[in-house]
Design a protein that fits this description.
UDP-N-acetylmuramoyl-L-alanine:D-glutamate ligase; 9-stranded mixed sheet; alpha/beta; Rossmann fold; about 35% helix; about 15% strand; binds potassium ion; binds ligand NAX; single chain; elongated; 2 domains
Length: about 475
């Protein structure tokens, strides 16, 4: 498969720190080491600074990777008359920034560790003499009110009169005359430096996307992981339970299954519906449950006769994932919706088979996603919310076994409690495919959908923190 003609799926405009972190994580997973990205970033800023022909440059660095970028800039400027690097000599640092500082000790630059405002005040001469000041204090990792020694460094830089070049994004409060953002602008008006991130890091899902999942606060209450309601079962009895296990393993705290069929599973809450199939007679019970749930996952094992119920669920639900038999016309749409069709269901939804060519397939899913996010399952999954398109290629042919689609819908349901539809669907596709790959490593084509849930936590929750 080639991606050369897939540039049309690159997003444009300003992106937020979370998305940038995800892209960087995906680039690292594709084999572009963080240190090399930093080198490329710092080099681009150094070129911008050198174009101004300065002789004295003051580089203000932080402890994170933004500071690391600043140290790379300083290294490329070391042959100027004077390069002074100020950095905080306290707090934790990242491995990449630490590596840059170690390298800088062997360069022709003056290093000035500071701990407090007084240390900064003692360096006031550097601010007065600088032709250019580089702001590499805080980047996309800035959080909360700016603390010392940065408060004083920002004040000194603003008072100096020298032009400030901000690295990636300005430290809050600083007046930058130029901003050089990496890969994509993080604020309006920034110049963009291409740091060579592979296209696929952006349009394909990857482990970097896992950083989008919000971490759970210490002392979180029961239910903080989300409450998912699965509505399904009838002609096929196991399907809603497989979805429910997917939701539980993907982090939902409480998962209820409203179904005519009972399969004993102690971790799930069974909401019994009388009879052999779900009908409008069950609506009152179901809608009461919809009211309590963060996300409803609906359609698996349902049969074709329950579409009125599906439409009523859609009407009442805030967030819903529709799968399998729910994917019929008229299409249900909750306030926020994810549809998880395979090719046949997509054809039923839209009246046309999805094209085989990936670029055309991307366009077709994008055009069809008018009432919610569509996750079209296939050897390469395609996700679109009508404006963005993302592809996912985790998975294995062993996943053609029954039940894997149900599981994916359940995973999407759990992630949807915490993420917007497009992000939840993209990540669900990634996680489900990875779970299938891990299960298939042990069991090959004898793998079952029920082998997959237990592999989900190691993918979702036990990944190493990014550098
Ligand atoms: N991750 C990567 O692969 C790449 C990252 N890059 C750079 O890395 C930056 C992001 O790096 P990080 O995630 O390490 O984050 P930052 O370097 O932006 O900031 C994190 C550091 O700042 C401190 N901090 C945060 N908020 C603060 C506040 N309000 N007051 C005082 N200190 C505060 C933190 O304790 C931490 O030490 C980007 O903006 C970009 O410049 C580039 O090198 C390109 C590659
Ligand atoms: K900065």
């Amino acid at each position: 498969m080639t991606t050369e003609d897939m540039r049309e799926f690159l997003e444009t405009g300003v992106i937020d720190a979370g998305r940038m972190r995800a892209i960087e994580g995906n680039a690292v997973a594709l084999g572009y080491p963080s240190l090399l990205m930093m080198e490329s970033a710092g080099r681009a800023v150094a070129d911008t600074v050198l174009a101004r022909g300065p002789s004295r440059v003051l580089v203000l660095c932080g402890r994170g990777n933004n500071g690391g970028d600043g140290m790379v800039v300083a290294r490329y400027l070391q042959h100027l008359d004077a390069v002074d690097v100020v950095y905080p000599d306290c707090g934790t640092t990242t491995p990449s920034a630490a590596a840059q500082l170690a390298l800088l000790r062997h360069c022709s630059v003056a290093l000035h560790p500071v701990r407090c405002a007084a240390d900064v005040e003692a360096l006031s001469r550097l601010f007065e003499e600088a032709d250019v000041i580089i702001d590499a204090m805080l980047g996309t990792g800035a959080a909360g009110a700016v603390r010392e020694p940065f408060v004083t460094l920002v004040a000194r830089a603003n008072a100096s009169g020298a032009p400030v070049v901000a690295v990636d994004i300005p430290t809050p409060g600083i007046r930058a005359s130029r901003i050089v953002s990496f890969h994509r602008p993080k604020v309006e008006g920034a110049a963009v430096a291409d740091i060579g991130i592979p296209l696929e890091a952006e349009i394909f899902t990857g482990p970097g996307d896992l950083t989008l999942i919000p971490s759970r606060a210490e002392g979180a209450h029961k239910g903080a992981g989300g409450e998912v309601l699965v509505v399904g079962g009838g002609p096929y009895q196991g399907a809603p339970y497989i979805a429910a296990m997917g939701a539980l393993r993907a982090g939902a705290d409480i998962v209820r299954v409203a179904s005519p069929a009972y399969i004993p599973m102690p971790d799930l809450i069974y909401e019994r519906l009388e009879g052999k199939a779900i009908t409008v007679d069950h609506l009152e019970t179901i809608l009461r449950l919809v009211d309590r749930a963060d996300t409803v996952v609906c359609g698996m094992g349902l049969g074709k006769e329950s579409h009125d119920v599906v439409l009523a669920v859609a009407e009442a639900a805030q967030k819903a994932v529709f799968d399998a038999d729910a994917l019929a016309l008229p299409l249900p749409a909750a306030k926020e919706t994810i549809y998880t069709p395979h090719a046949g269901e997509f054809a039923r939804m839209t009246g046309a088979e999805p094209p085989v060519d990936l670029t055309l397939r991307g366009r077709s899913v994008k055009a069809a996603a008018t009432t919610g996010t569509i996750l079209l399952k296939g050897p390469v999954d395609v996700v679109s919310d009508g404006s963005r398109v993302r592809f996912n290629r985790t998975g294995t042919p062993a996943m053609t076994v029954g039940g894997t689609g149900d599981l994916l819908a359940g995973i999407a349901g759990a992630l949807f409690c915490h993420l917007p539809a497009f992000e939840a669907a993209s990540l669900a596709a990634y996680v489900s495919g990875r779970a299938g790959m891990l299960a298939a490593e042990e069991r090959g084509n004898g793998m079952l959908a029920t082998d997959m849930p237990e592999r989900i936590p190691e993918i979702l929750f036990c990944h190493p923190a990014p550098d």
